[in-house]
Every structure is written in structure tokens, then in C-alpha cells.
Amino acid sequence: MLTVKVLHLWMVVSWFAGLFYLPRIFVNLAMVAPNSAAERDRLLLMAGKLYRFMTPIAALAVVLGLWLWFGFGFSGGWLHAKTGLVVALLAYHAYCNRLLRDFRAGRNRHGHVWYRWFNELPVLVLLAVTYLAVVKPF
Questions:
Q1: CB neighbours of 27 closer than 8 A, spacing ≥ 6?
Q2: What angle, rounded to 10 degrees, do the helices at 121-135 and 77-104 form?
Q3: What are the binding residues for heme?
Q4: pLDDT of 59-101, one tens digit each?
Q5: What is d(CA 135, CA 130) in angstroms, rounded to the nearest whole number?
Q6: Is 21 exposed, middle or buried (0-12, 13-18, 19+ CB in 10 A)?
Q7: CA distances for 24 relative to 34, 55, 64, 65, 131, angstroms
Q8: HSE (CB half, 13 Å, CA atoms) of 44?
Q9: Which residue ranges does UniProt annotate as crossing the membrane (predicted)?
Q10: pLDDT tens-digit series, residues 2-58
Q11: Which residues fall within 8 angstroms of residue 7, CB to CB, at 6 or more apart?
């Protein structure tokens, strides 16, 4: 069980690294000057590679989390709340893909300030998930 926990935490930390950095790339993309195609292409390449890297990590984090839940019988309201937050993170992850597609197609609809705020959402979710997993308040 401890090995599964370690692997789960490793995948979660890696996934969050991507969730923190990808929107930062979006901030930079939103600030690229219209005449700077090389910078835009470089940032799009970075964002695409990061998204492709973090997606299987997210899947492994979820699979290992489910293994812990169903394989070892954790229970409690805290786990259901945590699972709800993980579902929200998966939606955030998928929305990042949509934003990336919009950038690639030249259809970005948000400014860099919006992306700065968007970048803070996973920080808040990480705080809540960590609290629920450690304190198990209910």
C-alpha cells in the first residue's frame, strides 16, 4: 500500500507541476506581440509538449488514487469531497486543452490578466485536497 501511495503522490505532484506551468505559458502567449510569430510558435510548441506530457501523468494519478480507494477501502465524506475536487481538476485539465487549441487556431478570447487568475485555481484546489487528505475533517 505504501508503494501505491508513493506512486500516487509522485504522479499528483508531477501533474500539478504541469497544471501550474501550462497556464503560465498561456499568460506569455496572451502577451506575445502580433508580429512575433517565432515567439508564439515556440510557446505553442512548449505548451503542446507539456500538455501531452502531463495528460498520461494525470491518468496515472487518477488510476493510482482509485486503486488506493477501492483496493484498500478508504471511506468518509472527506474522500468524496476530495474526489469531487479531482473531477474539477480533470475538467480544468480538459479546459486547458481547449484553450491551447484556441491559441493554435488564433482564437484566444482572454487577456494575460485573465490567465493569471486562471493559473491560481489549481493552487486553491491543491490546498483543499491536501487539507482533506491529511486532516480528514469529516
A1: 112, 115, 116, 119
A2: 160
A3: 8, 82
A4: 999 999 999 998 887 788 999 999 999 999 999 999 999 999 9
A5: 8
A6: middle
A7: 19, 17, 27, 27, 25
A8: 16
A9: 12-32, 53-72, 78-96, 117-135
A10: 999 999 999 999 999 999 999 999 999 999 998 999 999 999 999 999 999 999 999
A11: 60, 64
Q: How many residues does the chain have?
A: 138
Q: What's the domain count of the chain? A: 1
Rounded to an integer, what distance in angstroms lies between the CA atom of residue 114 and that of residue 134?
A: 32
Q: What is the 3-state secondary structure (H, E, C) of 73-136?
A: CCCCHHHHHHHHHHHHHHHHHHHHHHHHHHHHCCCCCCCHHHHHHHCCHHHHHHHHHHHHHHHC
pTM confidence score: 0.94
Contact 119, 27 (CB under 8 A): yes
Cell numbers at 84, concatenated: 469531487
